[in-house]
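To: structure subgroup
Subject: Chain for Friday's discussion

All,

I'm putting the inputs and outputs inline so they're searchable in the archive.
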Amino acid sequence: MVSLAGLSITRYGLFRLFKYAVYCLLSYNVYAFFVENQAAAGTVFADGVSFGKIIEAYNDSIDTLAWVLLLLVFELETWGLSDEKLKGSTKWVLNGISAFCYVFIVYSFYGYVSEMVSLSHLLPAAASACDLASSGGWSMVLEQDDYVALTAANCGSLADAHLLRLADAQIVGAATVWREIQWLSWVDVINAGAWLMVVAILSFDVWLQLRHELSNSIMRYSSVIKGLLYFTLLICAIYWGINGSFLDFWDAFLWLVAFFFIEMNLFEWHAETSAE
């Protein structure tokens, strides 16, 4: 017979295993997004990615890396380290890492906005798809961040489409495809903005908790606001699942699960200190 204490410990161990498995999967997504961004950058930035365009070209991978580091900081602050250790040099190191991550997260948000703006600058194609294919150097967009060379073999797929091209690149596609990509770019901006507000509120909660000033009423108001933001993020994830790529949906789902763990950490931390 398994004792209740042993069962409790086993369940707790499985919970921790599941939690860190989610963190590892999110870490792997940094590489997955890098591969995706690398492939897209070769087409969008045919002349090479300049230093000023790095954040736009590798927006997803840089953004995900910064978020993974920030997630680890939150895990240490809300569960991994005791209140006594969250002082002095340790706290300064964590604050430094957080500040570093916030710079890239905000800059990535700017990258999403820049991409959305660039997608609003679409022009009618000056010639048919096959005429452009014969001139060389043109690409065809299939979906967001997915491009192929426009050739005589595939130009016929655009024969009956209303063609549009990016204003600053030799990329052409059907107007319906561009419209879907524009909607996805808006979802990217909304998602990134909602996450910025989530971590801003969560950071404020952690700061108050360390000062023993996080009251139950503040926790309730904070939970309501974050609940609305998490719901917005869930809608974004569902939209990606229907109209975007599986990687975007999977990444968004994992992040919601990961921050559910952080919220649980904060709730237990607050409950423990309130009982003292």
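Points worth raising on Friday:
The first strand starts at residue 122 and ends at 124.
Helices lie at 4-44, 54-57, 59-80, 88-119, 129-135, 175-210, 216-243, 246-275.

D.
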